[in-house]
Structures are given as C-alpha cells and as structure tokens.
Amino acid sequence: MKNEGAPSQVGVKEIAKRANVSIGTVDRVLNNRTGVAVKTREKILKIIKDLDYQPNMMARRLASKRTWKLAVLIPAASGETGYWDAPLNGIRQAAAEVRDFGVIVNEFLFDQNDKSTFSARVNQIMKQEFHGILCAPMFEEETNKLVKKCGTKNIPFVFINSDMDHMQRLSYIGPDLYQSGYLGAHLVHYILREKQQVLIVNISKEMDLHHHLLKKEEGFRAYFDNNGVNAKILKTDIRQTDYRSVKNKLNRVLKEHEVQVIFVTNSRVSTVGKFLEETGKPDIKLLGYDFLPENIEYLKKSFIDFLICQKPQEQGHKGIMALYNYLVLGKQVDMVQHMPIDIITKENYRNYRN
Amino acid sequence: MKNEGAPSQVGVKEIAKRANVSIGTVDRVLNNRTGVAVKTREKILKIIKDLDYQPNMMARRLASKRTWKLAVLIPAASGETGYWDAPLNGIRQAAAEVRDFGVIVNEFLFDQNDKSTFSARVNQIMKQEFHGILCAPMFEEETNKLVKKCGTKNIPFVFINSDMDHMQRLSYIGPDLYQSGYLGAHLVHYILREKQQVLIVNISKEMDLHHHLLKKEEGFRAYFDNNGVNAKILKTDIRQTDYRSVKNKLNRVLKEHEVQVIFVTNSRVSTVGKFLEETGKPDIKLLGYDFLPENIEYLKKSFIDFLICQKPQEQGHKGIMALYNYLVLGKQVDMVQHMPIDIITKENYRNYRN
DNA sequence: CTGAAAGCGCTTACAG
DNA sequence: CTGAAAGCGCTTACAG
Fold first, then answer.
1. Where is the HTH lacI-type domain (chains A, B) (predicted)?
2. With contacts defined as CB-CB under 8 Å, which chain A residues touch B176?
3. Residue A209 has pLDDT above 80, yes or no
4. Do domains B68-175+312-339 and B177-309 have the same CATH topology?
5. Which nucleotide minimizes the distance between its C1' and the CA of B63?
6. How far is B199 from chain A (nearest CA, A)?
7. Which residues of chain B fall below pLDDT 70?
8. Are residues B205 and B240 in contact, defined by beta-carbon separation less than 8 angstroms?
9. Interchain proximity A61–B61, CB inside 8 Å
10. Which of B99, B103, B106, B101 is nearest to B121 (CA)?
11. Domain coordinates of chain B in residue numbers?
12. Fold annotation for B177-309
C-alpha cells in the first residue's frame, strides 16, 4: 500500500542517491537527453519507475527557460459572421492559462472567403519554427500542403471546427455534424403535427463550406428514415446570403408549399427569423445553429425556437490544451474529441457557456 | 504603451532595488505581514503598483510550505440514488488540480435521510482548523448552526446544489430550479396537442427536499400561465419512492385521467419510465431530471424523452475552485453561479459532460 | 559520459 | 523594524 493520492515525496535528489549518480545525470535521463551510459540510464529508469516519480512541474518550469511556440491558423471573424470570435476567445484563454508554462501562441488569421490568404498564412508559419499548429482546415488542397510540410518537419497539428480525417492530425476537436442534424430532426419530430411539412434551408455561398451543411442534412434525413416519420421534407438552397435574397427565395417557396417547421443548417438562421418576423409568420417554428448575438435576438422574440450549438469557444480552448498536453506534458491525446451538442432555448440561453 | 500580455518582467529583486530595501522586506509587504515601517510599506506598495507587479505563483508555491485545508460536507451517494457521485467526482478532480498549490481537501459525507449525521459531521469539522468549507445545505436548522460557527471563526463557506440565500455564503453554485421548470414546460408545450393533459409527478419522501421540487413546479406552471397555454395540469405526489408504490399511484391516476405527457420533478424519472415500459404506454411522453445511468437507460429506449441536467460534477468542481480563488489567489468570487440548464436527448447524451 | 555549481523567483527562519 | 542566508525541486551551462 502506497501513500496514494499524496504528492510524490521523492525528487531527483533521492533518485540520484539511489542510483549513485549526481542529479545532473538523473536530469539527463528524465529529459532523455544524450550522453548517458546505457547501463546508467537503465538503472535510473528502473528507479524512476519503482518510485513512481512524478516531476514537480512548478520547479521544472521555474528552472527552465524552455519555450513552446504554437501557431494558430483560423478564419478571422468578419462582419458577415462573428462565429470565429468564439474559438479565438477560447484560444486566448487557454494561451493565458499555459503561458506560465512557457507556451507562446501566435495567431494567423485568414479570410474564409479567400483561399489565397490561407496559403499566405501557411507560408508565414513555415518560415518560423513552431512546435505545434492549431488549424481550421477550411480548404482541402491548401490544408494538404500544410500537412505535408508539417510531416517533413515532424510538427504535430490539431484540427478544430471541421475535420479531414485522412490527414494525420494529432487530434480533431469539433462538432459531430451528422449527429447534430439527427438531433435537430428529433426536435422537429416533436413539433410536427399530422401531415405537416418541414423545410430544410441551406444558406451559403461557399462551396467549400457546403459539405459541412450536407452532413447535417444527412443526419436530419436519417432520423426521419430510421423512425418512419412520414412527414414530407422540402429543401431549398440559397446561394446569396443577404436578407433580400433569402426573403425572395423563401417567399417563393412558402407560396407554393404549406410549411410548419424550418430547419436552417447553419448560423444564418437569424435571417430566416427576420423574415418570419417581417412577413408575420410567428406560427412557423424555426430551428438553426449557433449562439450568435443576432440569433439570440430572435430566440428571445420567439421567432427562433431552438438553436443547436457545439461550444465553439471550448473548441479553441481544447485545441491549445491538446497541443500543450502533448508537447509539454508528454501526455497522450484523444484522436477525436466531439463537442457536446447543446440545445438552446429562450429559457436557458442566459446560462449558456460557449 | 506597456508590453501588454507579456509575463511581468519584474520580481521582488527589482522592487527591492527600487525601494532600497532587501527582498525580505518586500516579501513582508507583499504578503502583508506585520513588522514593516509604515513609510517603508507605502513606498514599496507604490512601486508594486507602478510596476504592475504580478507574483510568480510557481516560485511562490515552490518556496512556501503553506497549506490550505478545505472541508467538504455533502451527502454520500446511496443505493437509492447515485446523484452525489457526480459532485464528489468534480470535487476530487478540482482537488487534484490545486493540490500542487497546497490545497488539501477533506471529505465529510452524511446521510441525506438523517439529519443527525449532518450535525455529527459539522462537529467533526469544527474540531479541526479549516480555511474554507464547501457544503450542500440540505437541512436548514443544522446548516444555520454551521454558518454561525463559521461566522465567529471567520471561515468562508460555499453552498452547492441548493441555496439558502439569507446566509452569508461566499458563493452559491448550483441549478436555477425555477428556470429549469420553466424550460421543462416549454418543451412540454411543443409536444402537447390540443386538449391534451400533462401530469406533474413529485416523487420524494423527504420533506426537506420538497421545496426543491416545488420550485421547479412553480416555474413549470408559470410558463403555462405566462404563455396562455390552456392545457390542463394534473399533479400527483408520491411519498414512497419504491417502484410498487409509484406504479400503484400512477395506475390510479392514469385510470381516471387521459394524460399524454408526464413531467417528473426530479431524478426519479426512471421509475416512471419503467412503469411506462411495463404497462405498455410508449406513447406517453416523459420528461425528468438528471444524467443518471438508470435514466439514460430509459432515454435510450425512448421511454424518457428529455432529461434536464445541471452539471452536478461541475458544481463540485467550481465549489472547490471558488474557495481556491478566494483563499489562495485572493480573487473575488461571484455570489451566485447558476449552472447551464442542459437538455439531454437520445441523440446527444453520448457527448454530454456532467 | 559525469559531476558540481549557479540560478529560476519566491518564502522561511534566524540574527540583529 | 530590517537584512542576509538557506532552500523549495528542478535545469543549465561549464568543466573534466
């Protein structure tokens, strides 16, 4: 029976004593530096294991001036959508938490409507020496280039927000898109009455982002299929994201079809909320994504019924922590970390934490 | 323009130099110990402020053997309900995180069906010297005694899970009961069809816990009132928590009334789920509280539709951190910290984190 | 390949 | 009321 739970009582001193060497040598094997005789190394390794030695992180940090540089490559929040403010906040918070442990975080923000800015940032990053990279892989080809360079330099990288699982990332941290669509469909199912119809709305001009939305739609439809829901699913794609375009398109669709529930596959749901408000259709139920100020507005006014949200801020936070755990603490990191799928309503948005 | 964000470059040495004293004296005013001339103290204080000095916590901890003892006073998880496992887990996790900073956490668990065990634990706690107390104030009178003793000894205490806001706690961390009932009613409202009835079920033998449930019920009814929902609300109190009693009572009620939705005001909802399963009533929708294994079972089988949950584990975690922040870091702490109100369904329980 | 010394930024006795 | 020294558990040069 060991004195379990208690902080490890032994330090390098004790190890050195038992191994009959100086603490300098112990330090060498602890940080597996070169220049230790194999025999000595093994002896020390055994003692470390027997003693279940845990290094004192504070002492280590105090003594060492070693530094870990991380690069962050995510879209800049734009006037169009403030979504990326949240991950950036999480990143900065995590950066503050690990700063005292020698982690330095550099931000490289790109324009998500312009691939070339992504490439440019990649080039900037590659000019410097980073120990790890946190990336939102928005563009497949360009991301591929980054990944290859990381491969040759042996730099670990973490994806957030969306995944490319064929690339050898250290970890993916983000939403489970399919499942969130599946959940959305279940909510719609509760609302839907006999013979009523639901309308799926995709609002996006970016083809690259599109598979994001399709994954959600897929999950949505799967729910209906798997549960034998025989309500009809209508669908419309809107490629212009401005209010006028959305309004025109919806007006046309709703003239032709009787629709009682609308499911918007991304954060543009507030545009539809505005439409329902202006055209006086409070009875149409509306579901969409993301905890954005404009969405919350319409949630408050009851034009949006449910928002599905996957903690974007925490995604950023966990992204940095994954690299920290891996690089600094030498811990293993989960390959996939799906975020919780949160359901936000008028009643609980005030307590929500991104 | 200061070198913002960067770790403070100055330490006690620099302060000492500028004040023309030794670092010992600087240390004395830093930790406001006695034995420093007023003039000296003021001079040093000014320099500290001018330099925006931030102490290096790691060095501080490494050098100091100072220790902070916290007492935790919560119910033991019982065979009857495992609810309190979650807060305890959170407490232990937080304890592990702050252990290196000299925080020692002692657990005092009582039987929530037996006030005398609560009193006994209070006496044990008061025999020792604790710097802070984390408490689930289940019994008003007994809690009052604890609070008084803390007052005279000037020991800060934090409440979790339920509040007594007239007592001078450092913080309350827990659910917003009223609001969660209100949210439950909104969910029910989506489900409810014309002329259907909802049944509120309180299952509890403890009178002391009862006001907990009533708060939720109050919120539930308030939603119906405020939104002019004219569905009828039935209600039944069940004072025996075993399955037979619940079954008999429900059988009686459902014989007399047509009910389409049942709202259980606490974690006993699985008992009702079992009832629905055994009596073959899958069409009755069921809502209740808490992420417990037995509840998740019935959620999976679709006999429970929604679980409302308020992160019990995080409550414990935050409770310890509140005391740590206050005592060790000297930070201010929010008087009330309401937890998010999470909605759990068959689709998102897998990703849920307590 | 190994050891001894200095130092990280603090706190803790001890001496005066 | 104040200072000088030792030490917390490590890492970092430097010397051999």
1. 10-64
2. 351
3. no
4. yes
5. D8
6. 18
7. 1-8, 206-209
8. yes
9. no
10. B106
11. 12-55, 68-175+312-339, 177-309
12. Rossmann fold (3.40.50)
